Amino acid sequence: MNNRSDTSPTLVRLSEYRAPAWRVSQVELTFDLGIDTTEVTSRLHLQRDPAQDAPLRLDGEGLELLSIALDGEPLAGDAWRYADNVLEVDGARDGSVLETRVCLRPAANTALEGLYLSGPRERGFLLTQCEAEGFRHITFFPDRPDVLASYTVTLCADRDRFPVLLAGGNPDGQGELEGGRHWARFVDPHPKPSYLFALVAGRLQKIERDYATGGGRAVKLVIWAEPDAIGQCGYAMDALERSMRWDEEAYGREYDLDVFHVVATHDFNMGAMENKGLNIFNAKYLLADPDSSTDDEYRAVEAVVAHEYFHNWSGNRVTCRDWFQLSLKEGLTVFREQQFSADMNSAALKRIEDVALLRRAQFPEDAGPLAHPVRPAQYSEINNFYTATVYEKGSELVRMVAGRLGRDGFRRGMDRYFARNDGQAATLEDFLGALGEANGIDLMPYLAWYAQAGTPRLSARGLYDAAHRTYTLTLSQHTPPTPHQPHKQPLPIPVKLALFDRAGQIMPLHLTDDSAETSGATERVVVLDRAEQAFVFQQITEAPVPSLLRGFSAPVILECAYEPADLALLLRHDPDGFNRWEAGQQLAARAYDNLREGNETSALDAWCDALEALFNDGAMDPALLADLLTPPGEIELAERERQVDPSHVHALRQQLQEHLALRIGQSTLQHRYESLAAHASLQLDASNQARRRLKRRVLELLSRIDPWTAHAQATLQYDNAPSMTDRLAALAVLVRGNASQAHAALAHFRERYADNPLAMDKWFSVQTQLPGELVLDRVRALEADEAFTLKNPNRVNSLFGAWARNNPDGFHRPDGSGYQLLAERLKQLDALNPQVAARMATAFNGWQRLEPGRRALARSAIESVAAHAALSRNLNEIVQSMLH
Ligand code: ARG
Ligand code: ZN
């Protein structure tokens, strides 16, 4: 590896951004492809910034330089220097052409960055991953997103071994070469940064579809996969077509090349990649069929296909000036993807899913040693900043701004943003500036959100004045300190709210100073933009129950001294599914506090009573009901503790579910399960998905109070399941309950899916959900399984990731054995794949708030990683931040 750091790593700082001294207008690349060695010839047409006189410096990592020439003349050895991943060349002028030839070793590339081999060498294929800085592993280049060039790419390879040759852009000829070889050329007319370059070569099969854009461009959509997987690409093709249509309708954005290629690989560090005209996907987010994919996975495929497609405008046509602006494309594209998914499915369920993810993944990040702003101020390794903060919180920031502008205003602003920045590398200021100007609104106060880490606490106090019939809502905010940011400033926080009377009816709102047009609406947004502010509502006839932060209108933690009965009222009566869920989550969290403190049960009773009533309300949507019946997860509940004992959190959450199951009653649950199980189906439509979701939840609740019956039913469900959704749900109940039947089911699953890597990933991950005291031995046994390898990121995540992140009680063993195992594997993994190792290491996040015993053990495990020789820059940055 080439980024091993023995000295202290250099930090890249936003404040030190400088425009490039040298640009490249045009790139001509020729690849002579081979599995063991590939030769890359590059011709760069250089442009010099006349205002700067820096020498020509190009990035290049691990490149074996074979030849170098400037303007057609081979360069003498003293006219260039290649050291510390920089090639410096003397004598270049504006308009010069630099030609280099380098040798790469794809089969030896286990980091899966740059050019690498996916699959076994006999039948695997070659592909590239360049974001963020992979292009410098392919050729010498100013590898930064503000250098946009047009690309002409020629691929040459043996025809039998590499029948399919693909690169981004439009096809521009192909032909035969001597010795059974062939070539293909691609020209991308749209200037792009190097991180969007891609190629793919190998034995792949395709499915195709013709698409006509609204503006009349004929586009060939092609999805490529290995022969055994091509049959699972149909759903992704449908999702792609829906995405393209949606972006035309919702944003007026059309596709801009003649072909759009999508490729699936089992060897990928991340989810997927939006390379111009040649998207590459982790197979997990592209392949789907009912026998091996769950309903959740289908929705994830649809969302990720849309996400990568939407990048064609939010990311590719308008890209980022530097990597500090990463959320400019990622936060915006996540937001667009969330809107799309809400339109395709249920908006309320989608919002629930997204807010649950934010709380599970982003809030803990923002509260721990790795906290960073959505626009970080500095980094050592940019790949460590593809985080929940940049993606999910970044999306929430776009959502706040979009809410501020309203539907039409946001569209107007986005049109302005795309028009003004098309073909350019932009900043978050460009984004907020265009949106604001198109609407005559100053959005720059929202920049503070991008610069400040940490989750704001929003407190609300209500005061009803019966004599004046006014209700005064006082809002205040406070953001706790985060690493490097001890002092926080107030942020603009839009609070969407409604008031309910005691009968559960929503009230008309009249704010002091209201205009006639807004007065009387039942839902309003007030913006808190200082430390504290009061809002007075008029003509209020009784003390109301406030419903605050509706739709999760800002990514904050709400602190409001609700009476349990008030939350129960909202849970039962709010017409909006999301707000109802939100009230239920808050009530469940208070019920959890009741169990922990053990002196008082009013929240627990209110939560159970309300859910019992909803369970028996025939009009409830089964999917929403399933979500209402799910209390906050252990990671979220742990955030309520001063000193976390994950085993105790787990036990309390189990008790919470037992109380709920007992309140609803064994026979009621049983009855509902049977009626849902009677109609098991393979169909993917919303109502069948909803019934499967509720069935799983009911079976889980049953297993809390009557494991014997539940395990018998789970076994039946496993044996007869028409779909993976039902099969995996049943298996999970057996494994979590350590049922005697689990053994046979697991053996059967393994046998049945031995040749299906994505299903095998599920076989590994479901077993990481064994009860806490049992799981470590299983993890050790599983890593000795012949199907396990540290070289495949999906497999690593499905074993170590699922264990360390989704089974806190099983990872945080009181004797520290879990920490030691993970630390050892991190060291091994880092030698193979630094990106995956660094991401896995974030499972230690939150260690500082563990109870003292575990805290000391976790610290020494992290220290042992930090002390390991030759850590990658990636893993080094994570463990150093964790410890300081
Ligand atoms: N831009 C991709 C996406 O969000 C993520 C690729 C990140 N890859 C990486 N190695 N950091 O769609
Ligand atoms: Zn993205």
UniProtKB/TrEMBL annotation:
User: Does the keyword Metal-binding belong to this entry?
Assistant: yes
Q: What is its EC number?
A: 3.4.11.2
Database matches in Gene3D superfamilies: 2.60.40.1840, 3.30.2010.30, Neutral Protease Domain 2, Peptidase M1, alanyl aminopeptidase, C-terminal domain, tricorn interacting facor f3 domain
Listed under catalytic activity are: Release of an N-terminal amino acid, Xaa-|-Yaa- from a peptide, amide or arylamide. Xaa is preferably Ala, but may be most amino acids including Pro (slow action). When a terminal hydrophobic residue is followed by a prolyl residue, the two may be released as an intact Xaa-Pro dipeptide
Report the transmembrane regions from the record: none
GO terms in the biological process aspect are: proteolysis
Hey, which family's this protein in? Belongs to the peptidase M1 family.
Looking at its record, which EC class is this enzyme? hydrolase
The name under which this protein is listed is: Aminopeptidase N
Q: Which cofactor does it need?
A: Zn(2+)
Tell me the InterPro entries matching this sequence. Answer: Aminopeptidase_N-like_N, Aminopeptidase_N-like_N_sf, PepN_Ig-like_sf, Peptidase_M1, Peptidase_M1_dom, Peptidase_M1_pepN, Peptidase_M1_pepN_C, Peptidase_M1_pepN_C_sf
Q: Where is the Peptidase M1 membrane alanine aminopeptidase domain?
A: 235-443
Domain named Peptidase M1 alanyl aminopeptidase C-terminal is located at 565-883
Q: Name one GO molecular function term.
A: metallopeptidase activity
Q: Give the keywords, sorted.
A: Aminopeptidase, Hydrolase, Metal-binding, Metalloprotease, Protease, Zinc
What region holds the Peptidase M1 alanyl aminopeptidase Ig-like fold domain?
454-559
What region holds the Aminopeptidase N-like N-terminal domain?
Answer: 112-196
Q: Report the PANTHER family cross-referenced here.
A: PUROMYCIN-SENSITIVE AMINOPEPTIDASE
User: NCBIfam families annotated for this entry?
Assistant: pepN_proteo
